[in-house]
Each structure stands twice: as C-alpha cells, then as structure tokens.
Amino acid sequence: MDISKLTNDSRRSWTTRREKKARQIAKVQKLVNGQVIPTDKIVEALEALIMPGDCVALEGNNQKQASFLSSALNQVNPDKVNNLHMVMSSISRPEHLDIFEKGIAKLLDFSFAGPQSLRMAQMIEDGTVTVGSIHTYLELYGRLFVDLTPNIALVAADKADAQGNLYTGPNTEETPTIVEATAFRDGIVIAQVNELTDELPRVDIPGSWVDFVVVSDKPYQLEALFTRDPRQISEMHILMGMMAIRGIYERHNIQSLNHGVGFNTAAIELLLPTYGESLGLKGRICKNWALNPHPTLIPAIESGWVDSVHCFGGEVGMEKYVAARPDIFFTGKDGSLRSNRAMCQVAGQYAVDAFVGSTLQMDAYGNSSTVTLGRLAGYGGAPNMGSDPHGRRHSSDAWLNMITGESEIQRGKKLVIQMVETFQQGNKPVFVESLDAIKVGQDAKLPIAPVMVYGDDVTHVVTEEGIAYLYKAQNEEERKQALAAIAGVTPLGKESTADLKQRLRENGVIAFPEDLKVKRTDAKRSLLAARSIDDLVDWSGGLYEPPAKFRSW
Amino acid sequence: MDISKLTNDSRRSWTTRREKKARQIAKVQKLVNGQVIPTDKIVEALEALIMPGDCVALEGNNQKQASFLSSALNQVNPDKVNNLHMVMSSISRPEHLDIFEKGIAKLLDFSFAGPQSLRMAQMIEDGTVTVGSIHTYLELYGRLFVDLTPNIALVAADKADAQGNLYTGPNTEETPTIVEATAFRDGIVIAQVNELTDELPRVDIPGSWVDFVVVSDKPYQLEALFTRDPRQISEMHILMGMMAIRGIYERHNIQSLNHGVGFNTAAIELLLPTYGESLGLKGRICKNWALNPHPTLIPAIESGWVDSVHCFGGEVGMEKYVAARPDIFFTGKDGSLRSNRAMCQVAGQYAVDAFVGSTLQMDAYGNSSTVTLGRLAGYGGAPNMGSDPHGRRHSSDAWLNMITGESEIQRGKKLVIQMVETFQQGNKPVFVESLDAIKVGQDAKLPIAPVMVYGDDVTHVVTEEGIAYLYKAQNEEERKQALAAIAGVTPLGKESTADLKQRLRENGVIAFPEDLKVKRTDAKRSLLAARSIDDLVDWSGGLYEPPAKFRSW
Known about the structure:
The structure is a homodimer of 553-residue chains. With 553 residues, the first copy, chain A, is an alpha/beta fold. Chain A is 31% helix and 15% strand. Chain A is globular. At the A-B interface, helix 1, helix 2, strand 6, helix 7 and helix 8 of A face helix 1, helix 2, strand 6, helix 7 and helix 8 of B. Chains A, B: This is Malonate decarboxylase subunit alpha.
C-alpha cells in the first residue's frame, strides 16, 4: 500500500464551511451595524445570508417561537432562497408550513407538530413537504451534532448586549443546544431579541457563539402549554390518581419522576398534599421532578413535598413564583428560572424512577399512540421518557422493584405508567384492535408506524377500573389479559371474565381499587388541594399570575 | 379540605441554598481579590467555602483533571471539611481516593474508575468508601439536575478573564454540564485555570455562572487516552476489521457510528482508506462520527471518507490537526475544537447507527463486562452507547435493517457490535461460563452485577472466527449456538459442531470469512493505511503532534 499515493488523492479545502460563512456575512456588511441587523432589514439580510439548500434550524420550540424570524423567512423571495432543509423541534405556527408551500423550504426533520398536525398530514400526502424523519426532541438534538448540523440557526432570546451575549430568562429551553451545534461548525447564528441592553441580568449564551442579533417588532410568541385548570379535573381523574399514588408511587417508592401534561397527572399533583398526606407519604415519595413549571404542582411545593424541579422550559405566569422558590427550581444569579430542554430530557430519560403519561389509543398489547386518522402530530419528548433506557446502570428502589426474575444477570426497569380512561371523549374506546397510527404511517409512507410508547416498555396501565401491573405479566397473552381486565366495557374489556380477573388479582398482575384500599366514594373534588386556577393563585401567595385565558375573574 | 390550613403548614424559607452560599462566600472575602482566589490561599478558601456533608462535583473527568483543586481538597483539615458526598465522573488520581481515607469525603457517586479500579474495590470492601451508585456518564449528568445537584463544583479550564468567563480550548468535555447544574441551584463554582487573561479566544462558560477562579500552580492534568499505536495492530485485528467492514458496515449501510477505543476499532479506521476503498465504499459508509479525535482516524479523514466528527473530549497531540480541519470537526471562532461530553453521549446514544465496542469477558448469551476479579472499573460511557435506545423513533437504513419480524407494530434497533478475540492475553478465554462481574458485584454488595453490555442489546459479535448476527437469533438457545460457533477453541466454542455451524451459516445467523469473501491471507499489516505513529504524523502533514510516550524518534 503506497501511502503517499493515498494522501495525494486528497487536495481538498478543509475550510469550505468557514469560507462560505465569511462570504455570506460579507454580503450583509452594508445592511448591518456590527452584530446588529436593523429590524426593517431582516428579510433582506436573510436573503443574503441563507443559500438555497441550506440546512436551517428555526426555533419552533415547544413553548417559545422565534416568531419574528419565522415571519421574515416566510417573506423571503423564493427565487433567492429555496429548497431549504428545515430542522425544527416543533411545527407550531402557520408560516412554519407556509414556507414549504412557497418552495422556500423542501425537506423537514422535526419532532412535534401538534398545532399543525392536520395540515402536516395533508402536505406530506401532497408531497409539498418531504419528511426526513420524525424524532423525539432528544434524538433531534443528538443529530444536530451528527448529520443534521445547521448552516443557519434562527433563534429567540429576551435580551442581547452589544457583544451578542444572550439572555433568555426562564425560557432558555433548547436555544443553547441549537446555537452550539450551529456556531461550532461554522454556521451562522441569528437571534431575535425583545431588546438590546447595555448589561444583561445573566448570560445564557456567550456572544462568541452568536453572529447577529435583531430586535423583533414584538416579543417572541410564548404559549402556556402546561397549565391545566383544576376545574376540569373529574372524579374519575381523582379516582385514578388515588390508585396511582397508592398502588404505584407508594408501592414502588417513587422518589423522582416526570409527569406528562394532562388532567390525570394534574389530579395526582393536587392529591399529594391531601390524600398523599393522609397516607403519611410526605417526604417519602415524589421528591425530585423533571417537569415544566406546572401550576398544579404549586400546592405540593408549598406544603413541603418537593425537593427539586428541573424544567424543560418555562411556563407563562409562573415566572415570579419560580423566582421566589430558588430552593426548588434551578434559577440564575438574576433570580429567574434556567430551563434546559436537552438536559431535562436526559434527566427525564435516565435519572428518574418513573414517567407518567397518557394516550388516545392503546392496543391489546399496550402499544399506544396519540396519532389519530388524518393527523400527524409527531412525538415530542414522550417516547424518550416513556421507554426503558437500556443503558441505565445506577439503581433505585423503584428501578430494582421491576425485577421479577431470579437470574444472576438482570437489571431493573424504569417505570413507564400510562393513565387512560377506558373511553375517550365522544364515547370512543381507548382500547382498540388496531392503532390508527398504523394507517397514518402507511398513508404518509413512514418507514414504521408512529407508535408513541411501545407495550414492551410499559410497566403499568391505570384506568378507572384498576391497575394492570404489566411488568409482572409472564408473556404477551397475560399482558393482554391484564389490559382486558381493566378495559371496562370496551370491546377488549368484554373479552375478560370474572374468573380471569380473580386469578389476575390473586397473582398481583392487576389490582382494583378495593385491593388498594381506595374507596371509590372518596374520589371527590373536595379532595383536590386546589379546585380552580384561583385556588392555585392563593396557594402561591399571589405569585402565580395566570394568563388571561385561564382567569375567571 | 381546608386549603388555608394546608398552606399555613409551610412557613419555611425558600432561599436556604442561596443564603448558605452567601454566608460561605462572605467568609472568604478577606482571602480573595474579587472573583480570584490567590493560588497560595486555595486550601484555606476551600476550608471556608465547603461545609461538612456538602455534595461536591470534582472534575475528575475522563481526560482532563482539575488536578490543582483535587490536590488542594486533599490538603484541607478533615476537622473542618469532612463527610463530603463526591460526584465524579472519573476516579483517576490517587487523591480522588485519598480524601476518603482521610475522612474528608464519605459517599461517592461515579462513572469510571479505570486507573484506580483495584484500590476502589478494596476501599469499598473496607467500608472506606460508600458508593451511592455507579453510572454511565450520561446518567450521572442527568442526576446532576435531579437528585445529585452539587453544592460545590471544582472544575478546570484553560483561561479566565476578569469577569470569570472561561475558555476551555479543545477540552470543554463535561465542564459546562457540571457548572450549569451547580450554578443554577445556588451552588458555588470554583474553576482552576492555567492563566488569567484580558481577552479570551472564545467563551465556553459565561462568567455569570462562575463564582471563583484560581490560577493553578501548573496546567491541569490531561491524558492521551484515545491514541492507539498502529504498530500494535495485529493481523488478527485486521482480519476482524475486514469482516466488520464487509459483513456489517457495508451490509447494513452504516452511515454514522461511534467506535470504542481499542486495536480492533483502530484497525477498522486504518482499513477504510485501503480495504474499504477497494470495495468502493468511500462516500457510502462511515460518514458521520461521534468520536474522540482518534489519531488513527486521520488517514480516513485525509482520504475523504469522513464528513463530520463530534467529540466527547479532546486528545493530546491532536489540537493542531483538528484546528486545521474545521469542515470535519466542531471548532470555535478561535479555531480550536469544541467538545461536549454530554451532547456527544446523547449523539452516541440516539443519533448514530452503530456502536462498536470490545470486552474482556462474554458469557454464552452475549452479556459482557470489563470488570475482572478484584477490580471495579465502573461503566464510563459504553453502556449508554452500547444499548438499544428504546426511545428512538427516527429511522435509518441500518436501524430498519435490524427488523426481522413482519408485525405492523415494530421498530428498528441500534447496531451494537462487540469485537473480541476468543482468547485474552495470558491465554484466558473471553467466552466464559459466568462473568467475573457477578462475583465482584456480590463482593462489593452492588444491587446488580456490573454488566457492561447486556446480551439482549448486542446485535453482532465479531471474533477472528467469524460474525454472529445475534439480532437474527430466534431465541436464547440459538443466540448461544451462534456465539459458540464463533468462539473458537474456548470451552464454549467446543460445544459447537460442524453440522450446527453449517446450519447457522445457511440461515445467515453466522458468517465465516469465506462467506463474506474475506481472505484470511489478505489480512496483512501492509493493508493498514498507517503502520506507526510516525505514519499518522505523515498523513497529517505534520499537524498531529503525538505525546513523547508515543514517539519512536
């Protein structure tokens, strides 16, 4: 083998990305003032900075939106900027898809499209959008450093100083992750900010990672996604919450956890200070949380249940409350929350005992999906947390509790708990023969059906009928029997018999409320520590400031 | 439920961490100059800043060591500072364990103890060290944000400015992660730096996250851990490398990957520009890497195989080479590498097609461990990457290739490839009846045996005999048969028969070199693109500067 011949094959430049960046930046020198793009020049600047076919990370984030920049991108001339490869964790705003209709963008890698799921499904079918893959958040962040590294990042922050240092306030979220991947591979980072200032309260992203800032015409869009009004919590939610606390949290000694957003988990949060207290569980369970700042967690925090909460993002209205509770929340020297979606997803995947989620459909083996016909909502973060991380090696009581065998080589399991009522709204059974996701996947030509949580990862299912301890099921058949036994009067539920249920109860594979000493008649709204948004404000001593749409006063 | 009664239960302070921090910092005001602790006052400062029982994250990192700070911690008066809870990803230096003998520290949560594994096992048995848990790196980082949040972080950087902004150069590694978890929960962050300077080349960690900097008496310790001298690559490694390229990389279309460190993977890296080229695979496989800057990857980079490499950490001697290849490596505006161990672990777990590792022992079902009797080395990062991430939802050819069933609900698998010679040095069989890890775990009273990679996550095993395609095995029995068929003359290997091997070959569950069109006689050292460190320097055009211990000239 002649090495000199091999090396001589390669007379390439190793700085093509850096040179391209320099060329693009040179083009806007007449438009910009140092690092600042004038607000009214943003469209022109994007047309100069972005090349056709570039990979663009646009901060469509779960909560905050780089809305000024996405509007500007939607106004560029498609003759100049086209065929972009968009990398976005969340498709949230109309222009996130408009740019595909105009030909500005062509290829899309994303995680979540909740607000645009119907249109997304149609546009994929029409071929207007070509989907690379659908990810969980954490997978997408990983790929930013592997094969989806952006040429351009369009992100949002609260404030910038003259050096381009960024302050994000409570909504740090995924901005540092996007910026890091872009900045350190000679991409161009453009941040919209609500204001320019001389001195920042703290620095969330160093100025040496940022190329341009632009003051937006109005503050970035921010949605309150994790606020659940306690008035909508039903007695069924409360019953299920009591069963979960008694039959899962207490039984398995759950210390650390993530709650998906929903009324079932909101019920649990509001039952800890009342029902949980009456069981003597305060200080014994549910101490460390990977969670957005759920307003419904306020009573548990105030009554001393919670040691820590690390947050994926912020929550509108919770800013002052969080800032006043630095023992509990991660806050900066400026006093406000520091969230970090990437590290909170790592924590939620690897560092907590339990994930509690919900779903719209579940098949007889525990596979579930929130995808319904005609809607392609994507995954978000749930599958990342709602799965057993096989790489986990550290143990906890709850994790070890999932071991059922006697082998010398074994490992624990993360608790993946699904809470579902047996029927959805509109009297549709949750338990189905076949998930809609299968057909949606076929229609959209996805390589696999978009299953949110796979049955083999689910350890517990809670319905209003009882709990199925799926981790104890000996095989697929018993898994199905256990689910049928708590599936009520759905078609699957009707397959079960009194004898079968009795045997499963005796083997501890299912439990009914009476097995857990939970009285159905106790499941009253009076058991909730807060029964309205107003109550939550009271609990917070007025620190929680709910957005107008949640106020009744 | 009387809400007012509940709220009144809680008349606590919510700022105890912040107040404690302020008290501790007030105590050192006479010692420090602003944010700077004078070098000769560090022991005194630590005695004032650290409280007995504090949780301390000391940057014993896989590569760089906060060696000045660990020495200083080892000199504090145990009457003043004692019973610390140490959180360290890597136990590398003697004083990392000395502090336990002196009573300065008591409890330890860690990931890796390679260099101190013998002493670690002894000290656990003696009760000198109490182990919380042993983690992979990523799990430990996750827990920093959940239930192992430090009160004190002792970290290392290259340079600081007067505002406490830190520059890490290529060895950013896990420093930002430790600092973020500590700084944003009112912990105290102390960074040793090699120098103070007026202007930093770039900012890796903002000054508003850092409380104190101290100029160390000498630069922090940095080890070259990922350098493998090609002279030590044997023909057996080359044969196995050829089989892996042909029978796995090409067959499954592996685009993105992580290589563990070892001579088998070094052989593959050095075969890509020669053997791989001859197969026409350039530009078709192995394009995106999550990898430390392995010197043995230089020839593949130079001959145009590699699109990108994201790095966990730096590698001594590779600084100038990496800086000259910004199209490939993630580099900053200062031109030098930006590594990030947390995000590279995320990428290595979730965003790549394949992990290739090695091990010292493997049982008949594919469970493996590098733990041997009397040594407790911990996990490092391998189990995180050497496992199938059940939360993955995006697909790739390789991932989809692992699907063997026909069900409508299914998912792909990450390729977890183990490359082992059938015998270790000293003629010990690699394939064993029972892993030493079982006894080590029992002796150290660990809750589970310290298995590095579980058999159910392993998709392929390569020995000098052939490849076992374990993902195709129908059941545990066939898995064992496949391993036996490639286990050579080990006791397990002798259980196999010619008939059984033939049947497994026909079913594609195993392949021998001839099945892959790999000629044993071609497996010569002349096939390596570099056969010495010297050759690697040549390939790099003199940019690679190997440490003295690797030089023969």
